[in-house]
Design brief:
The protein has 289 residues and is mainly beta. The protein is 15% helix and 45% strand. It has a 16-stranded antiparallel beta sheet that branches. The radius of gyration is 31 Å and the shape is elongated.
Length: 289
């Protein structure tokens, strides 16, 4: 085995002890006027350790614009999502609260068939909300997993109204349908939007402009209670619920507050108004009075 000279040992020792490397990753913190991503898209706003933080405006390759608050690279707080059109204007998609890069909290979204305002959870309509449909009808009530589920009130374009229970997006359970043009009230049990058993009453027939020319005759059964009991036999477990539960009272109170906001809003806005140009309607007691 050959031995290294003193000079060679010194050289090896020098390389091992004197060479220095920087293992700290370069990170960006602060505000930037514009940052252009390699593929496509831009970001204007604040950074924290190379992640979007606080307030910023980001436009993706698909021309989706998010204008709002960030936290550690994710949409968190209050913000607006828009879609840039070829003519230079921006079409609003969603405006409201975000959490963990998802729509979560109170917000409004524009759909192809209407506008929704209410509560969200994990990018889905969840909780109390109002849906204005393009055909003129309005639904106010509970949502779950992006469908009508719970207690709600549906106002139809022709003036009729349904108040009752929903499940999986359809009328399911106990409900009341108000035929406003004929002055009749229909109370019954529903299953997948189909009324299975009901009773119709001429409650306010004399108060409508065009009542039906065929009034409901008086009930002439010998044992009406027994007949009605047999008619609703399979729905008896649902019939013993309280007349107005806590959820129903909460839903009806919400519908009363929101009935003043039953108008559509313009969907397209110019790109010059980037920072919070739309405010959610106030539902506080002062506004209600």
């Amino acid at each position: 085995m050959t031995q290294c000279s003193t000079r060679d040992k010194f050289r090896v020792r020098c390389v091992l002890t004197c060479e220095r490397k920087n293992h700290i990753k370069a990170q960006s913190t602060g505000a930037r006027a514009a940052f252009f991503f390699p593929g496509s898209g831009t970001y204007k706003g604040y950074w924290l350790r190379s992640q979007h933080h606080r307030y910023g405006v980001k436009e993706t390759q698909k021309h989706l614009i998010y204008d709002g608050e960030w936290r550690n690279g994710k949409r968190q707080g209050y913000g607006t999502m828009r879609n840039r059109l070829p003519n230079g204007t921006a079409e609003r998609i969603y405006i409201g609260e975000w959490q963990n890069d998802m729509k979560w909290g109170e917000g409004k979204q524009f759909f192809h068939d209407g506008v929704y305002y209410g509560w969200w959870q994990k990018n889905r309509r969840h909780g109390l909300g109002v849906m204005w449909y393009k055909d003129g009808s309005i639904y106010m009530g509970e949502w779950e997993a992006d469908v009508k589920h719970g207690v709600g009130v549906h106002f139809y374009e022709n003036g009729n109204r349904y108040e009752g229970h929903y499940a999986r997006g359809f009328k399911n359970g106990e409900g009341t349908f108000y035929h406003m043009h004929t002055g009749q009230i229909q109370k019954g049990m529903w299953e997948n939007d189909v009324c299975k058993a009901s009773m119709v009453m001429d409650d306010f027939r004399n108060q409508v402009e065009k009542p039906t020319p065929y009034p409901i005759p008086k009930l002439g059964l010998e044992e009406p209670d027994k007949y009605v009991c047999q008619l609703f036999q399979q729905y008896i477990p649902n019939a013993f619920k309280p007349t107005k539960s806590f959820n129903e009272l909460k839903c009806l109170s919400f519908a009363h507050k929101m009935k003043n906001f039953t108008k559509f809003e313009p969907k397209s806005v110019t790109t010059s108004k980037l920072k919070f140009d739309v405010k959610l309607p106030c539902t506080c007691k002062a506004r209600e009075k």
